Fold this sequence. Notes:
The complex is a heterotrimer of chains A (266), B (265) and C (324). With 265 residues, chain B is an all-alpha fold. Chain B has 11 helices and no strands. Chain B is globular, with a radius of gyration of 19 Å. With 324 residues, chain C is α/β, with parallel strands linked by helices. Chain C has 2 domains: 2-229, 3-Layer(aba) Sandwich (Rossmann fold), CATH 3.40.50; 241-308, ACT domain (Alpha-Beta Plaits), CATH 3.30.70.260.
Amino acid sequence: MRKFVFNLRLFFESARLSYIALFRWLRPGTYAASKIIMPLADIMFFTFIGIYANGVEAAPFYVIGNAMHLAAINGIYGVTMSVGGDRWEGTLPYLFGVPGSRLFTFLGRAFFHLLDGSLNVIIGLLLGWLIWQLDFSQANLLLLGAAIATATIATCGMGLALGALGLVTVNIMFINNLFFFLLLIFAGANVPIEQFPNWMQTISQFIPLTRSIAAARLIINGAHLADVQSMLLVELLIGAAYALLGFIIFRTFEYQARLRGTLEAI
Amino acid sequence: MSERNIAIRYIRPILMSAGVLFKQQATDLFVIFTVVIQPMIVALLALWMLGDAVDDAIYIVVGSGMTGLWSGLLFNGGNSITRERWTGTLETIVGLPTAMQVIVIGKNLANVTQSMASMIACYTISSLFFGYPLVVQQPWLFAISLVFTGIAFVSFALILAPLFILNPAVRSFQNGMEFPVFLLSGFLFPILLLPNWTNPISYALPTYWAARALHITSQGLATRHELLFVWAMLLGFSALYLIMSSWIFRAVLRKARVDATLNMQ
Amino acid sequence: MNALVISDLRRVYRAHTGVIKRKVKEVVAVDGISFEVGEGELFGMLGPNGAGKTTTVKMLTTLLIPTGGRASVLGYDIVKDESKVREHIGFIFGGERGLYWRLSGYDNLRYFASLYRVDPAVSKTRIPYLLDLVGLSGRGDEKVEGYSRGMKQRLHVARTLLHNPDVLFLDEPTIGLDPVGARELRQVVRNLQAENKTILLTTHYMFEADALCDRIAVIDKGKIVALDTPAGLKKHVQDLSVIEIEVFGLRSEALEKIRTESYVDTVSLENRDQRQALMIHSPRGAEAVPDIMAQLDGHRVGRVSVREPTLEDAYIRLVGGTHE
């Protein structure tokens, strides 16, 4: 029990610290810029392209897809930066030196990004409601919340894997940018997956967001739990698989670094 | 001022600054992402989304290429100044006889030239997608428009640069400027789709006039009258930004020397 | 005409503290200093870290605007005629930053030459000459990131000489260098002196100032506490001798007792492992030793020596025994 409480504290403490460290330079103005202006402009850009192609009736398809994709801002950039942050600050040796479950430290880092990422999606959907009168009257809001949480958890899982990869490779920003945009294509935020060639459709099945985006569209159209529960469950499993992969990379890296004494050298 | 004097005071520092930036950035993965990979992804998405809706796929090539041109200018232009901070050279170059503005023109020139790669990247991927080469309808007018676009972008970046000199935390500012300009410039959809009140903002952006010039010449829709008007707007804005920037530069550098922020990281 | 005229120069930094309640804290870095430097003179500014040396240099090189007072370089005002000043000065700030590490040494110099508006025909011969002057000939084509710290700092010197400036500001040019690297760099400075350049050098190494400078201003807490030739500064302590005593486990009451003795001018203490080195300035010289030994009764005492004062002793007397 005591061990559990200790781990729980470690979890929240590392969550809180990584969040403060990431946003310490943010003033309210710049926070608003990265929290509101950038995500909204992102959604509007693709939605207007969609409207140009298919008329304003098609707007919900694009708004929902792109709003859900905003979960990846935190899931990918946020999580990798707080995992990889140790490397920049030169604090990695200290991190490995502390006792306590690394799993909890590791997961703790993802926690606040989860909350913040969900908030991104909600802001995005509200924009759709404001500008294009996105209709939530048929939607089970609780279920929609579950879909949003699923999207965020799954992208955070991928973020943990990329963040761990960032400890091994030099160019984490490149990897982040690439995966952020690849998700935008492959998850079907702007193009129905059925339009893709087969090899692309296969990839779509193994990444976060594909199912949660589809589920969110169904839910807003009035779907029930039974219609979407398997999609959300599979997406959660995919997120967990990425998180596990990240943890394995993290541990392997730690072991190798201790073996070779290269903690400082990286 | 003699020709030789102009060469030594302006031309050479500009070309050398551009050359140094090329050497520093040629293999930078972040730069390659911004000016090649991201525009290609935008082009792919636009091809799927707009493929049936627009008459001429060259519209997508030009529009997505322009997104790379703007992202390249915004991110690499800002980063090239922030990098001076990191290397500790910002102070040094402020203390040189050559004006900071001249050095930044050189950097912008390199960045714009480099960002033109996005046009080539988008052209290539679109041709592959369609399986046949796409045609620029009015190649000479398009080429001239591209040069004017370059000039306009260099001078537009010149009024952004002082922000980067003043503020070391530029990333969120850059993120906040990237997509809004995509939206307002009519790169991939007409600005008529936007609410009317945003149109004046679009008209104040050189990116809008550049997109218009490149779109009409590539699609072969340019009438002499419209093209001259658009070119005049492009060059007019370039001149305006050039004049404004020299005033802003002076104010900003003075402020930095009063607040002692030149060597901050 | 004097190359540098500085009168009542002052600089205050404002620092903001606190996130929610923003408080403004003022720090006076340079507190009304005045001095003049003649043409061709090598003028030293000597002082502990944070004394205001670098701030003074940054104001004189136009990188900071003074809060008060005025200064001119070769007759040009550092605020109003900044571009004129920049044409005629060269400057380096100690340390290895401030170069483009991804470029070769030669490319760094070629780039800066263009920014210093050196005629390309001139820089073609000048760059190899400068590389040779700072002992980097043959290494110019290598990337700077592979240079040793000393090589980078010497490349800085070459950089600042590209436009053949009349006045040079060298801010702690030997900082962080190993003894060999520092000696090589001092030799470079001597060569510049031979070329009749006006040089303002800051350092916190006494022997460096002693060996190089024509005159030295000792600066502490933003004020000039002494300004003289090295020999003149030593005169401040000429009436004194320095007694050095090695003791083990010195008790503080014994130290305080010695400090109050009438024949003791200043006392400083340096810890070396278990031992302490007690340094006493006294006009009585060797004669004072028996009295001091009496005060140290009950302590284990090691080596005792009496010597003539050096510039370092003068410096310690001027800035107090509290600094390292």
